[in-house]
Specification:
The chain is mainly β. The protein has a single domain (about 1-5, about 35-174), classed as Porin. It is about 15% helix and about 55% strand. It has two helices and eight strands. It has helices at about 1-20, 45-50; strands at about 35-40, 55-65, 75-85, 90-100, 105-120, 130-140, 150-160, 165-174. A hairpin with a 2-residue loop joins strand 3 (about 75-85) and strand 4. The relative contact order is 0.19.
């Protein structure tokens, strides 16, 4: 049952992204996509024993709305993301609504909440959808470039079996 819901949610997210992307391939402006790839370090010893110490983590996000900057330069984005955190047969797929606040051109923070879809195995005792969350801090290395790059660090998890941990990644904006 949940696999059908996952496929439907993924198809809806991809369809939304395809409809909101501009048709012109010649445009050099950023299109609102982010790709964050890195590692997920489970914080519980039992999770690490049942799987591995380091999991792969990747998120694809899209900005749905951006606010106007304030006098101090602060602005925010509302968006959506789909990701993967796992190692081998132990993984979950988070589908989040995100809020990203930009303190200035370099520093930002992001919070995401939604639903996670775990794979039943040695870490997850069931494969039904559960609450999923993430929060991270980031630093942009290049501002105004063709492909801005940022370093991110945060904490993420899923309520199923309390699988949570630290994340470190490199984020590309395009």
């Amino acid at each position: 049952m949940h696999k059908g819901l996952l496929c439907l949610a993924t198809a809806a997210l991809i369809g939304t992204l395809a409809l909101t992307a501009p048709a012109s391939a010649q445009e050099t402006e950023l299109q609102g996509f982010t790709l964050n790839a890195g590692v997920f370090l489970p914080s519980q010893k039992g999770v690490r024993r049942a799987s591995e110490d380091v999991w792969f983590s990747i998120d694809l996000g899209y900005k749905l709305q951006t606010s106007e900057p304030t006098d101090t330069g602060y602005y925010y984005d509302l968006g959506a993301s789909v990701g993967y955190r796992g190692a081998g047969n132990n993984y979950y797929i988070p589908l989040h609504v995100t809020f990203t606040g930009y303190v200035n051109e370099q520093f930002f923070y992001r919070a995401g909440a939604g639903v996670g879809f775990p794979k039943k195995g040695s870490v997850f005792t069931a494969d039904d959808a559960s609450f999923s969350y993430s929060i991270e801090l980031g630093y942009n290395f290049s501002t105004g470039g063709q492909t801005p790059i940022a370093l991110t660090a945060g904490y993420a998890g899923i309520s199923r079996n309390n699988v949570n941990g630290f994340t470190v990644g490199v984020m590309f904006q395009f």
